[in-house]
Amino acid sequence: MPKSLFIDPAALSGKGVIHFADIPVNQYGKTVAQERRSKNFTDADLVRIYRDMTVLREFEHMLNLIKTQSAYNGVETTYPGPAHLSLGQESAAVGQAYLLDRQDMIFGSHRSHSEVLAKALSCIHKLPDAELLSVMEGFFGGRILRTLEKVHKAKDVKDLAIHFLLYGALTEIFARENGFHKGMGGSMHMFFLPFGVYPNNAIVGGSGTIAAGAALYKKCNDDTGLVVCNIGDGSLGCGPVWEALNFAAMGQFDTLWEGKKKGGLPLIFNIFNNGYGMGGQTSGETMAYDMLARIGAGLAPNEMHAERVWGHNPLAVIDAYRRKKETIAAADGPVLLDVLTYRLVGHSTSDQNAYRSKEEIEAWQAADPCVTFRAELVAAGVAKDGVFDAIWAETRERMTKVCGWAADTELSPYADFAKDGAVIERLMFSNERAPTAAKAPARKPEVLIPKADCSRVKQIAGKERAAVVDGKPVSRMRTYNIRDAIFEPLIDKFYEDPTLVAYGEDVRDWGGAFAVYRGLAEVLPYSRLFNAPISEAAIVGTGVGYGLCGGRAVVELMYCDFIGRAGDEVFNQLSKWQAMSAGILKMPVVLRVSVGAKYGAQHSQDWTALCAHIPGLKVCFPATPYEAKGLMCAALAGSDPVVFFESQRIYDVGEMFHEGGVPKEPYEIEFGSVNVVRRGGDVTILTVGATLYKAVEAAELLAERYGVSAEVVNLHSLVPLDYTEIAASVAKTGRVLLASDACARGNFLNDVARNITELCFDDLDAPPVLVGARNWITPPFEFDEYFFPQASWIIDAIHEKLLPLPGHTASVNHFAPVEQMRRAKAGV
Amino acid sequence: MAVAVLMPKAGISVETCLIGTWNKKVGDPVAVGDILFAYETDKAAFECESTAAGTLLEIFYEDGAEVPVLTAVCAVGAPGEDVSALRGGAPGAGGDVAAANAAQAAAFAQLAAGEAQSRPDVIPAAERVELGAPPLAPMPTLAPAPGPVKASPRAKRLAERLGLSIAAALPTGPHGRVIERDVEALSQNQRSAGDAQIAAAAPAAGTASDPSAADLAAGTATQTTPAAPIFSAAPNAPAYTDTAMPLIRRSIASAMQASLQSMAQLTHHHSFDASQILALRADFKRHGAALGAEGVSLGDMVLFAAARTLRMHPDLNAHLLEGGVLRRFSGVHLGVAVDTRRGLMVPTLFDADKKSLLEISREVKELAEAARSGGISPDRLRGGTFTVSNLGVTGVEMFTPIINPPQVAILGVCGIMTRVRAASAAAPAPAALSAGGGPGGSGGGAGIETYPAMGLSLTYDHRAVDGAPASRFAQALCNHLERFPLLLAL
Hints:
The complex is a heterodimer of chains A (828) and B (490).
Chain A lengths: L8 H4 L19 H7 L4 H27 L1 E2 L2 E2 L13 H9 L6 E4 L4 H14 L2 H10 L4 H9 L5 H17 L23 E4 L5 H15 L6 E6 L6 H10 L3 H4 L11 E7 L2 E2 L2 E2 L13 H5 L7 E4 L3 H16 L5 E6 L17 H9 L2 H11 L5 H23 L17 H4 L26 H7 L6 E2 L2 E2 L8 H13 L6 E4 L15 H4 L5 E3 L4 H13 L4 E4 L10 H8 L2 H4 L8 E7 L12 H6 L4 E3 L4 H13 L4 E6 L27 E4 L4 E6 L2 H16 L3 E5 L2 E3 L4 H10 L2 E8 L4 H12 L9 E5 L10 H4 L3 H12 L14 H10 L2
Parallel strand pairs in A: 3-4, 3-5, 5-6, 6-10, 9-10, 13-14, 13-15, 15-16, 16-18, 17-18, 20-21, 20-23, 23-24
Antiparallel strand pairs in A: 1-2, 7-8, 11-12, 17-22, 19-21
Helix pairs in contact in A: 3-4, 3-5, 3-15, 3-16, 4-5, 4-13, 5-8, 6-8, 8-16, 9-10, 9-21, 10-21, 19-25, 21-22, 26-30
Chain B lengths: L2 E4 L9 E7 L6 E2 L4 E6 L4 E5 L4 E6 L6 E3 L3 E6 L18 H17 L40 H10 L17 H16 L17 H5 L4 E5 L11 E6 L3 H16 L2 E9 L1 H13 L10 H15 L5 E4 L3 E4 L5 E3 L1 E3 L2 E3 L2 E2 L7 H17 L12 E5 L18 E14 L8 E2 L15 E14 L5 H16 L1 H4 L3
Helix pairs in contact in B: 2-3, 3-5, 7-8, 7-9
């Protein structure tokens, strides 16, 4: 909604048609002989292309035998994990990798062994020995290299590197400690950053948004190279993939981004189109496009330079990449490639191929590039047949040795979970304090004006930093509130960390739907603060890609309820990559979500429980300005993904509890700590979110009417959570009530209550009692008091479940056991 | 101007009193000194005289209410006067906090008895909250109490630490659960009960199963449960009745339990030949009228003998205090267990070792009478150094009386049995039988004879006294009782 782009009714009402340019289909058509003459390849190059194909083929052939016969070339072994093979697709993978350099990134799918090996083999060929050695020495402190030195006498550095690659990949698949990420990723998540191989993703299309985020990182940080997103034709049925396609091609890169940042993302969507999404036939059965490349025409005026390429010819794929690299270099990305290929075996080793005929498989076997390309090379006189026999013999010998080493549990041990209970525990969070991203050294943060000139900064300077000053409440307009407390650390960080970007829906001109970012647009170029499409999956998924490349992203989903739209990106991607990479990847991403009010059932839910349930996410929910600033400072200084909950009910509140109000200078609140806002001796009230203020109201009534003194403790950090202070409070009071605006069933506080019961059982004078919202849809605002916890409910719960209060009569019937049973039985 | 009549403070340690029944009703004329209502503490019953004259304008607390002392109970004045200012307490200056606490305690007790809804009036107006619509959820009620006591872990831990029985606590928590505050209340009761010597002999039968009107008025709840038809021919006949114990009963219960749990008690049983005191008793009855001593009983003589003997055994006339201090008393102040309708009471016979047999006899009768009528001053219910519990008339052969802490011993007086022994010339007043057989038989040398043997059961706290000195005391007492006249020299 920038004012610079005028939506003109006169222009829009004019008559016309949309023109589409033709989309090329298999237009390559050169022979090996022609390529030899064009000097694009030496004979050695062509033979090496075939050599790489044999490595890919034999690697998966080995996996197929291990999975189906528990043995390969005399090495008896097996493993329980998956093997999604791409036998038959090797030429497409090798073709793709041929021109890619180390700084080019590829992202993959569950069927990406070949892409990984091809990209790595390409790098091994291109990198000088010294660089290769330093990669191998530097990886996990040279641990894989040390193991290989015990058993392998390498011919040369490249031979060593090839063994290193095969061994690291296979031990990863075998879940061994020597795997590329210590076995924590496995077959479907394999990658190797030093060669530009970024994570494969077991969620179909999962790499779509992440690769777009990586391309965003390259663009925003002037990083060289391009990003390839390898996904399958089946993933074109996934919404997030379409979101990624649109996000990567959005108009603002051309219309609004300026200077070096102008132009499309350096991204190639490489769709390996093998005709099937598992068993569903995409063209003709499950998809509408007929020919996949057609979709480019619907996405952008440049049709994303879409093209269909015959993937069985590695030279056709190389040709396409040669041309597309130029497109990317001209800042005219992203590009869509529909690379035709075919997998000769099933989706997985348990696939019975019920969905395709024997005839079809046999026809493709006859067109197997490992057969046809070799024949073409021999026919063109590139090399004699015996050379290829020797290549096959060498590949098989390498594979047999590597398989033997990987199968050997002495040489390639499993992580010892029995001895070391914290193998994965150590990987869940990186817990680093990284003021700026590692990859952006002394780059100056790009800003438009000095921070002090920002109108919002000036406005905040004139505000009172506490809700009450000299005993008098400060007027709303003059109170430093939670909005300001989120804005302040964020703008500070923008002037400190050059990689920091923030985006989401309506964050720029609007200043965010709740005005948290108001004023930021004055100081930041589009490349650091921009409006995202209404694509929650892409907003979070690109954040994940941006973060795992080493950049810091603050992405916003406006309403917490929209997490559903980004479910996979929050729950499978943002949360898991640090541990799945064995700590190689960091995820310095803050996901801001806001718990709504007034907007009914689909805009008012507190979904903290969903986020807290998923391992790998830090979850916080500040309810005071002091908490908001301290937690945002900590989130922005850390290396872990943080889901940062906010509440629209309390954006306006000033600091009521912290002595002296909110400090001007930055400070961090440690994740896991709690905020004791009121001391008391008779009952502990633990709160999450805006309910804090209801609890304080209840505490005042309890003191006034019943002489009961309540200690109110706000859990501003849900994950992690240190129970020390909570247990101390409960030991003192013996009674604990937990309250939040989240629905009572499955409320995160139930988990806290259970822990308290176990940790403090002998201190308890009654079981902990939970006061949550009703297990209903959120009704219209007019009925809030019937749905969300009220101070009176808190008092009722204390009266009925913890400490009967003389003279008190319950105002609601929420806490009688019979009613509790009835509601549970009815599911409400 | 209308004035309030305050609940009297019936003793130093008394904080609340239960109103028994009102003698006057609203509208009745009242003169100073008129009996307005009966009331009781957990130890004694009293009558409240009006301190004002006029018309009884309003009664703030109905029958059975527990009222903090020095709290306004009713208003007396001219008809039509506004009494709202008097309502809701106006306790004496400085008494606010204590009174408020006590009021709260009273309200808790009512809650537990399930009376809060029907009797909001028991909560002083100052504490009263608008009740509004009838409560939706059931209020916590006193559990009928079959099965184990429901108590919170925190309450259990506190009870363990204080050495209290959780079962003795009055549950005020949700769903009839004993919670921390109930143990704290129990502990406080315990302390005041200790002061007042609610103690002694265990089988204080009768009171709990035979609730008097006063008991019922004192906030007790009786629950009757019809039997399931399958077990009973008469479907309406109750299979059992559940009766919540009155305060005094609960006090006794806690004191008994605490005594047994906190001390190392054991009991020695002795007996002595009661021929001489029986003879004395007969003489008093026959010839004592002139001295006013015709009522001197065997029990009086035991008290007299015990007081004199204790003087020589100061280790048993003592209190064992916290911190391992044994306090031996120079005077002997005998607690005398008295069975009353409201339960066991133990008035104190101060300086018993300095009083004559006649004085002891007279005073004990007065004390027992006062205790039974409920008119005894709470200050006469404290301060004992040793207790005597006499169950002789009930035919008890031996028993194990329970010590009244912090005393270290208690003497149980049992009935008289006829026993036999080897005949001895030394035996006083023997009723001789010839040895070796039936009546009329005779033989040279040892024969056997019968004699009236009276049993004494001495329970002592082994922490304070060892078995030998305790036995020596009992032995000395037996000797003194067998030769009672010698004691008169002391």
